[in-house]
Write a structure and sequence with these properties.
alpha+beta, BirA Bifunctional Protein, domain 2, Enolase-like, domain 1, 13 helices, about 40% helix, globular
């Protein structure tokens, strides 16, 4: 039976709550820390955007600034969301060589979210796993999750047990075309996203939720958890490397840097045969494509959205390979398939054909 650490960070300020597991992952990847499960609650609300998202496109940054809401870009894919202390985060950090961690990311979601299902069912709710990365109760989402990789050997899964939800704030922090749309968004969230308080009439004690999480990991994964604290090396690494990186403009605005010319608008003629074009394709996750076209040739390209990619930085390589290509589906799809073979990238829920479909939508707009 594998022995894993269980580290309870209690309530932590947003940046630590969101990112401390990266320091743990660094030490786990180097073999200096055991596989670890972290539990934590943010001490105050904040907004989190996915690794591949365009910040200004997804979040009302001015509102967040006025309300003193921190905006943090996480290291995994997925969508923008409002988070607060009414959620208990679990963060699983384990080496791929572990006997309880599946090889594929899709199987990682299925195996580890069985623990989340266990917690909700133990509290009396008919929870079910819904591929790719959700847990639902009677069709309504009650847990959001993301996965990623770190270094050469480590897999990460992060998610939450939702005690209660502030639907108005969830809708308010997002960038939307109108206030009427925002009202509709809040109502839609209230209909399709739920919480323990909404389902049970009250939220259970946090200690009970944490106890069930620990019990679930031991029973579902067949591991032995040992209560522990972060090591001095993990604390030092978070303070010296992880925290400064996440506070930097380069990290927060990463998908915008170096692509200024592509942020001007959609289907806009610049001059002659040079155009800026944007398209969206909804597969199991959203893929947004922005390109600078010279005739039918891709001169520059941004791929963004709420999809997952492991490793996350592989998308930059895909963008590089698509530059210089013409809008020909066979040519584009062949290049994308070659990228998958060469890089070994995993995009759970997204196929090479989905990226090709997204790129070829540009042709319809030109």
């Amino acid at each position: 039976m594998e022995r894993w650490r269980l580290v309870d960070l209690g309530k932590a300020e947003p940046l630590m709550a969101q990112t401390f597991y990266e320091a743990v992952a660094s030490e786990v990847d180097r073999g200096r820390s055991a596989n670890t499960i972290l539990l934590v609650q943010p001490s105050k609300p904040y907004v989190c955007v996915g690794f591949h998202q365009e910040l200004e496109r997804e979040v009302d940054v001015d509102y967040c600034r006025r309300e003193d809401l921190a905006v943090i870009r996480r290291s995994q894919g997925g969508g923008a969301t409002y988070l607060n202390g009414d959620q208990v985060f679990y963060q699983v950090v384990a080496r791929r060589g572990s006997g309880v961690i599946p090889a594929s990311v899709e199987d990682v979601f299925k195996r580890l979210l069985a623990v989340t299902v266990y917690v909700y069912r133990s509290l009396g709710l008919p929870a079910e796993y819904k591929a790719l990365n959700d847990v639902v109760v009677c069709g309504r989402k009650i847990s959001g999750n993301g996965a990623g990789s770190f270094g050469d050997h480590t897999i990460i899964l992060v998610g939450n047990i939702i005690l209660d939800l502030d639907y108005a704030s969830m809708a308010r922090v997002l960038k939307v075309p109108s206030e009427k749309f925002r009202d509709k968004l809040a109502k839609s969230m209230e209909e399709w996203v739920t919480s323990l308080r909404k389902e049970l009439g009250k939220a259970p004690p946090v200690d009970e939720v944490k106890r069930l999480l620990a019990e679930g990991y031991e029973q579902v994964l067949g591991v032995k958890l040992e209560a522990s604290r972060p090591t001095e090396a993990e604390r030092a690494l978070w303070k010296s490397e992880v925290k400064p990186r996440h506070l930097s403009r380069e990290w927060l605005h990463m998908s915008e840097l170096g692509h200024e010319a592509l942020l001007a608008g959609r289907a806009v003629k610049v001059t002659g045969n040079v155009r800026l074009v944007e398209a969206e394709h909804k597969a199991r996750k959203l893929i947004r494509v922005r390109v600078e076209l010279i005739g039918r040739k891709i001169n520059d390209i941004i791929l963004s959205g709420d999809f997952f990619a492991l490793p996350e930085t592989a998308v930059e390589e895909l963008e590089s390979r698509l530059k210089g290509m013409t809008l020909d589906r066979e040519e584009v799809l062949a290049a994308i398939w070659k990228f998958y073979r060469d890089s070994g990238v995993e995009t759970p829920g997204i196929l090479p054909e989905d990226f090709a479909d997204a790129v070829m939508k540009l042709k319809e707009l030109t």
